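Hi Q.,

Before the meeting this afternoon, I wanted you to have the adenosine monophosphate prediction in hand. No need to reply - just skim if you have a minute. The sequence and ligand are here:
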Amino acid sequence: MTDSNRPVHQAPSCDDDYQPDTLSVEAAWDRILQDVSPVHGSERLPVRSALGRILDQDIHSTVNVPYSDNSAMDGYALRGVDLPSQGDADLRVVATSLAGHPYEKTLQAGESLRIMTGAPMPAGADTVIPQEKVERDGDTIRIDSTHRAGQNVRAAGEDLAVGDCVLSAGTRVGIAELGMLGSLGLVEVSCRRRIRVAYFSTGDELRSAGAALGPGDVYDSNRYTLHAVLAELGVEATDMGVIPDEPAAMEQAFSDAASFADAILTSGGVSVGEADFVKDIMQRLGEVGFWKIAMRPGRPLAFGKIGQAQFFGMPGNPVSVVATWCQFVKPALRRLMGERISRPLSFRVRAAHALRKRRGRTEFQRGILERNADGELLVRTTGGQGSGILSSVSLANCFIVLPHDADAVAEGEFVEVQPFHGVMS
Ligand code: AMP
Ligand code: MG
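Predicted structure with the ligand bound:
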């Protein structure tokens, strides 16, 4: 859209940084996910080794889970037809059945079975009365008329039935999934192969841990951040160190990385107008677009392919690395790994105080979600939001996502937040 045919309400003004070649966060997300497709290759793995891996085939249940009807309580199994509709009834206790020790006979009229949680229901019985609801006297129990037939029984297959698609291809095997695979009695599953990711930092000012700092120097933090996120994602990561801002060194590093990696991640040197030789190298080695994304932090992003490798050139500022990782690079790598993905979970809460924001870009401010004295969930800022202030990330437990067209937020207004962690990650 050219400036002349932009609707008036979208026309750029002095206080937004609208640029015609800038992509919205949504458009960048769509383009990245369109361009990235899963790596080829899979392997069969013992179930425990599949933790953190992506299933490449649907898993169908070959058993009922639970395998047979069983008791949900410690109590007495009986025939529902023996329940009194009024007054009390006495039943004879014929035996005891523990989990793993079925009662082999059929329960007859007037009989009950002492049964423990998880023990299979005996033939004939369809109801369990919890032990605290009966009066027991020797071999007899007395029950009243407050019970219903069918109570406290877990039905065979109520969790998973034979033939059910339990987990579909593209599912990441996490805590729940590993338990599910275990419940099916599987020995091995087929998973997508691990992806290989090479990463390095760029910048003449970067120093490694242990080295002394001179004026203008900074310790390289981005390689630590990337080490952490890649380890958590479960990829084969190769740290290629710090590459100086020199064309020959860069070109060498890119070709080395492209020779073995499925994806290459770099930080620094992608700002507009800066280090133009990076663009030249990219154009020679592959197909890479230099994007400006209407977001803060994290505006510049180089995205494309170098040889067979998917390339992500992230900005150098440490908070920008975190933001572009979370919003684009991580979803793209998950896709490359063969995982089915969706937009990050978010929800709306009230802002504890006013928040500054400029129209014309999506802002990922760092926030702290907490309850006030009345128990209401509110979000407040971590303070300074500069893209070099990495402490804002460690203080935060969420992103406050302020949409493209919004401007400043007033105290008490609803804002969208993306929590960093869940209860079961
Ligand atoms: P650049 O994108 O290369 O222009 O870098 C932007 C800012 O981020 C500069 O202040 C850099 O010094 C800083 N920076 C770049 N890479 C790193 C890194 N690996 N660790 C810490 N700061 C960095
Ligand atoms: Mg730099």
